[in-house]
Specification:
The protein is mainly α and about 230 residues long. It is about 80% helix and about 0% strand. The termini are far apart.
């Protein structure tokens, strides 16, 4: 057997791939569900914190900054392990799926809050003053004048950060979540062949490559016209 044949037999074994394809497909469904929950909850929570921070209550802002900096500093894996193994000590026992979702959502919340906040504060003060001079309230100015402009500015960094964090769904394998990497690793252990990892890599490309393309399209679509 030539070196190329051994390589194909090791990483592209058709028989092994066919056997474990249903497992990888199931892992894809779990990953899609987990990623969708992380994206929606993390971004909405980050936006809510940024809007709350914009109200200017000093005590509230200090708490928000502390929480955001905390979750920006901690590795997602540490948060997953803390939630999954630590909370049972206070009689709260989240599943591996819930632990992974909460962990990644909290990290995405922290980064998206900073991104939204940067977008809000980048809007010129004159636009606030001009909008208020027309009789708009602070809330109306924020929601109707400032926020639409800020969101356009946040699209590039927000899409990049979202993609980076949602790929962390693979960390769920540490707490027995049956996502792509978890199913692929189990298949490798059972088949004594790494071909399922090749399937897993393909599954990640199928899921996340369109997200990258969509992010690039959004950056082009939402950028300011020169």
């Amino acid at each position: 057997m030539s070196s190329w044949d051994r390589f194909v037999e090791t990483f592209f074994n058709a028989k092994v791939m066919a056997k474990y394809l249903p497992d990888i497909a199931y892992g894809m469904l779990v990953t899609i569900e987990l990623a969708a929950l992380v994206i929606v909850s993390g971004i909405l929570a980050g936006l809510a914190l940024a809007l709350l921070r914009s109200l200017g209550f000093r005590a509230v802002n200090l708490v928000i900054v502390f929480v955001v900096d905390l979750f920006r500093s901690l590795p997602p894996l540490v948060i997953i392990v803390f939630i999954y193994f630590g909370l049972p000590s206070v009689e709260v026992s989240p599943s591996g799926f819930v632990s992974t979702w909460l962990s990644l959502a909290l990290v995405l919340m922290a980064f998206s809050e900073e991104i939204f906040w940067a977008g809000i504060t980048s809007i010129a003060k004159g636009q606030w003053e001009a909008a208020r001079s027309t009789g708009l309230s602070y809330g109306q100015t924020l929601m109707n004048v400032v926020l639409p402009q800020a969101i356009r500015l946040t699209i590039p960094p927000l899409t990049n950060r979202t993609i980076a964090i949602t790929k962390g769904t693979a960390l769920g394998t540490v707490v027995a979540v049956s996502e792509i990497l978890g199913m692929a690793s189990s298949a490798v252990s059972n088949s004594y062949n790494p071909s399922p990892l090749t399937l897993g890599a393909g599954a990640y490309l199928i899921l996340f490559f369109p997200m990258v393309v969509l992010g690039r399209w959004l950056e082009t679509r939402m950028r300011w016209k020169r």
